[in-house]
Amino acid sequence: MIVGLTGGIGSGKSTVAKLFAKYPNTAIYIADEEAKKMMNSSKEISDKLIFEFGRETYKNGELQKDFLAKIVFNNPEKLAVLNSIVHPEVRKHFQDFINKNHDKSLIIYENAILFESKSNLICDVIVTVFASLLVRIERVMQRDHCTKEAVLSRIKNQLSEESKMMQSHYIIINDSLENAENQVKYIHNILTEKRASF
After folding, report:
1. Which of 95, 153, 171, 196 has a Cα at 20 to 30 A from 146?
2. What 8-state DSSP symbol labels residue 42?
3. Rounded to an integer, what distance in angstroms lies between the CA atom of residue 116 and that of residue 137?
4. Helices of type H across 42-113
5. pLDDT tens-digit profile of 41-67?
6. Who contacts 158 (Cβ-Cβ below 8 Å, separation ≥6)?
7. 3 state SS of 134
8. Alpha helices in the chain (DSSP H)
9. How far is residue 24's CA from residue 60's CA, in Å, rounded to a whole number?
10. Could you give the CA distance from residue 105 to residue 67 in angstroms, rounded to a whole number?
11. What is the pTM assigned to this prediction?
């Protein structure tokens, strides 16, 4: 069973993914991490990014994340171009991951832009992680050492929390680690039982 795991920036998706990872019947795929690796290793991706965003996108063969971020974060059209280059390749890579983990009951596909990239269509179940706006802003400011304005700008480019939750089967309220852990356990038990009855 493929479980899409999403949520806005700072909602705590990675924390929730780690909680799911504790269960031996579960494999975790973090789309953002894999995308970053592929942007540094795939010539096909790097050629397309240089064509679209310029030679400054790479220096000595390494992706210049800050340069790219400045271009795309305040420009939805450029962000869409970036996603159209990277996400089809991530999708192919994920398919390989599924094949390698065929013995697992649950495969968690953690993706910040699950709906925007239409990756929800390959998932059997969708789980959205939710945290209040204030909590999210605080978490991202601490994590990325950036301003409140920078966080709000990034949030503005993402699909609204309401839209994500309306399209999800389960919602995890991530206001504390203990609470999140209990909700993950509950959802994991339900999905494992469902998988067994397939």
Report:
1. 171
2. -
3. 21
4. 43-53, 65-72, 76-100
5. 999 999 999 999 999 999 998 999 989
6. 8, 9, 112, 113, 116
7. helix
8. 13-21, 31-41, 43-53, 65-72, 76-100, 133-144, 148-156, 161-166, 177-196
9. 40
10. 40
11. 0.89
